């Protein structure tokens, strides 16, 4: 089930010859903070975050310092492979500390004193 929601998130991503690793921190009302991994080749970016039996898969294009695309949330290798879907935009911001070791949890991202403003993601309703 997918609903219309918007959130902010932060990501710290390291590119080592096209192999991407790092952390993502997602703020309520969406969830999924944790370690990420993926690839970048010819401007195409694929990132994945796996938590508690679910996977968030980001597919995007990287152009002019921005990464924009779509994401799905599902359970890998099951009929529930796309429970939620949406769009996201990630832009390079001024350097700001994001807890890397270990990666932030959803609870840490939603602490009252945390101000996430680096990117936005929004879920889109399923097509009829």
How would you explain this protein's 3D organization?
By secondary structure, the chain is mainly beta. The chain has a single domain (7-103), classed as Beta Barrel (Lipocalin), CATH 2.40.128. Helices cover 3% and strands 52% of the residues. It has an 8-stranded antiparallel barrel with strand order 1-2-3-4-5-6-7-8. The model is unreliable at 115-128 (pLDDT under 50).
Structural class: mainly beta
Which percent range describes the beta-strand content?
over 45%
* Tertiary shape: globular
Number of helices: 1
User: How many strands, which pairing sense, and closed or not: the largest β-sheet?
Assistant: 8 strands, antiparallel, barrel
In what order do the strands lie side by side in the largest sheet? 1-2-3-4-5-6-7-8
Provide mean pLDDT, rounded.
77
Corresponding CATH superfamily: Avidin-like
CATH topology: Lipocalin
Number of domains: 1
Our Rg estimate from Cα atoms comes to 14 Å
Descriptive labels:
128 residues, mainly beta, Lipocalin, eight-stranded antiparallel β-barrel, 3% helix, disordered C terminus
Please write out the topology.
Blueprint: E1 6-16, E2 19-26, E3 34-41, E4 44-51, E5 54-63, E6 66-74, E7 84-91, H1 106-109, E8 119-123
Antiparallel strand pairs: 1-2, 1-8, 2-3, 3-4, 4-5, 5-6, 6-7, 7-8
